[in-house]
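Notes continue from the previous slide.

Worked example: a multi-chain complex. Inputs as given:
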Amino acid sequence: MERMASHYRKSGGRWLGSGILRGMGVTLKNWIGSYFDPSRLVTVCYPGERLPLPENSRSFPFLIYDGDDPEAGLRCVACRICEKECPPECIHIENERDENGKPRKRPAVFDIDISVCMSCQICVEVCPFDAIEMDQIYAISTNARFEPLRLHKEQLLKPNEYFRELSPTRSAAADARREAERAKQAKKKEAGKKG
Amino acid sequence: MTEDKQLQDELALYGVHLTLLEQVYNWGRSNSLWPLQFGLACCAIEMIASVTARYDLGRFGSEIFRPSPRQADLMIVSGTVTKKMAPQVVRLYNQMAEPKYVLAMGACAISGGPFKGGYNVVKGIDRYIPVDIFVPGCPPRPEALLNGIIHLQETIRRQKLSGPGKARHADRDQPSEYAIPEEGGRDLVPQYNAETWRPSWQGGGK
């Protein structure tokens, strides 16, 4: 009895095993409470229901095109800034070339190896044309390591409407930026004509 | 006849259930995948989160993380495999009992990720042990891991136990243990496991 009392004093007024009992108490409270309060059932049954993602949540990059035709509305001009800035070097771009072998301002190959991508968003920040943005898809799993995880241009291309839905704030900012740029270009052209 | 999946589904609508021992075996195996309890880096935090009440990996029969490789079925390689850790990972894989599966979680475990140019990181654990499922992300969300485990369960349910194209663990010719790499001055020796992986200049990387 004396030993137990001394243990009680030493442990700061807590009996041995009282922590376990308190933990079990929380479990019991939640179990019984779940019959009365649905908010105590915290499990989100993943394949059926999904947690809403925050707007700034991001997974892998994708390419934006304007309008309906992915090839005509492609914003990317193959300037390769993202390829150079990518810290894990997971972007691979090759320019389209005309018959003389002169590079055109369009990517013929635009691959992103998502098995290497670290979702840092640096490609998005350095892109001067708002052509690349971060997606929110996460449910990817494959049986092979190389080809299925290397996303090609066709898989990466998504319309601007998709981006508007994904992230209203960021897409509004990007649209405003592009509109301002277009107005500036038009003004310059006009000034050039007058001069 | 019972191997015809479409016919089986059709008969199941009328209350006639046909099955093979193989399917019962695969069903049982796929619903009790006990992972090995070990984590290597930040992906391990997401792996731990996927066992919490919010995501609840236990719904798929994988809630019991075994601390011993002898009792585990699934190795979730969650994080950066450094060259110092790689021998231990291969040793743990060798110690696991068949049938065993490997899930590479996150960019580092698949390819080395941001560290792939470094001197001390293995550029993908598939260089040393055969990986069944790859889950990309940096790190993948807990749902992505759940998705990977569901994918693995589907893969297991399709496995054959006999005949051509049978599962790896049912094939006596396939090894279940691989050489443990050792530190050899410049790099690990061997640099990769030639039984399961080949470099791109020898026709690998596809």
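Summary box: The first helix of chain B runs from residue 5 to 13. Chain B is about 30% helix and 10% strand.
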